[in-house]
Known about the structure:
- Helix 4 (127-160) packs antiparallel against helix 5.
- The protein is 25% helix and 35% strand.
- A hairpin with a 5-residue loop joins strand 22 and strand 23.
- The protein has helices at 4-20, 23-29, 47-53, 127-160, 167-198, 244-247, and strands at 64-72, 74-76, 79-95, 100-101, 112-113, 118-121, 201-203, 208-212, 220-221, 226-242, 255-260, 265-273, 284-290, 302-308, 312-317, 323-324, 330-335, 341-345, 347-352, 355-359, 364-370, 381-385, 391-392.
- The protein has six helices and 23 strands.
- The protein has a six-stranded antiparallel beta barrel with strand order 3-10-13-12-11-14. It has a four-stranded mixed sheet with strand order 21-1-22-23, with no helix packed on it.
- By secondary structure, it is an alpha+beta fold.
Amino acid sequence: MRVVPIITAALVLVVLYLFVMERDTLLSWVGVETAQTDESAGAPSGAAAAATVDGPEDEGPQLFGVVVERFEERDLESAIVLRGRTEASRSVEVRAQTSGLVLSTPRARGSLVEAGDVLCELDPGTRAAALSEAEARLAGAQATLTEAEINRETATRLAEGGFRAQNSTASADAAVEGARAALEAAQASVEVAQAELDRLTITAPFAGVLEVDSAETGSLMQSGGLCATIYQLDPILLVGFAAETQINRLEPGAMAGAELSNGQRVQGRVTFLARAADTATRTFRVEVTVPNPDLALRDGMSATLLVGASATRGHLVPGSALTIDDEGVLGLRLVDETNHTFFQPVTVLRDAPQGFWVTGLPEVADVIVVGQEYVTDGIEVQVTRRGDGAADTRSGE
């Protein structure tokens, strides 16, 4: 049997007994004095008792501290910033209405055209002969009608004198009607042949710029074939897209400015506001018409638009102060004159570098900007006003 473990265990027990049961005696051996206690009450005496009486327990429950900032209602900047692009005011693909070989010399892309300028001219082929044939039939129909009218007049006079039967007049009337129908058909044939000849000359519908070369000489153009593409760049459109909260503040005729991606700045007026939102982005199309006499503005350039809007009043609050109540309503948590909290729903008008412009608050609002997520409605809080540096501990008296 080993003796060392037994001796070690006995020593440990002795040390533990001295530390637990004879602690005061042990401390007196090493020269440490213990605090005097009141043997009758077992409570601390002197300064310790005084500290207990005067301690924070007599001050009541501590209030939760929040940081509050005061915001006053003011006019919102009367302009709305939109992102968009430039766009041609008019564009069209000029296509052929008939088929034929191209006889005209093609115009180069980028060239300017005026309304009525010839873009493509097609080979007439046998269309001129078809027109001549239709005109000849028209002349024959006119002669037939004249002869039928003469015969009817003769038959009428003879019937009135008793030299001819009365039914001969009806036959003459029928002949006249048939001749008149043939004449109208011949006139329609002439118009069709003439229209077919007119389709051989394809002209520009409005003044603009050729974006694509017109058809090449000698190429065979089918009906519906592309002759040229024209863009009208004077005036040009600035197209932006407004959010649902912005569109009601815009009006047709409002002044607007824009800065293009190349740094150029232009001005114009709002000429169109969409009534239906884009299904993908839920934004509304806004068009601003800008003069472009030198065609310096090109189609498809990125632009930042600043559009004049109707004045609106609101509060500019930091985005971190916004919160959501238990029902998912966006708002702010405020304190009243008695430092009790309450929730106020708000509507965001637009964003800004300093936060968000909102409406729905009182004219002067004390908004909790720190700690709003940790309090509920109707509780009293200890208020520290931003910028004051001291706590407002009023109890509402």
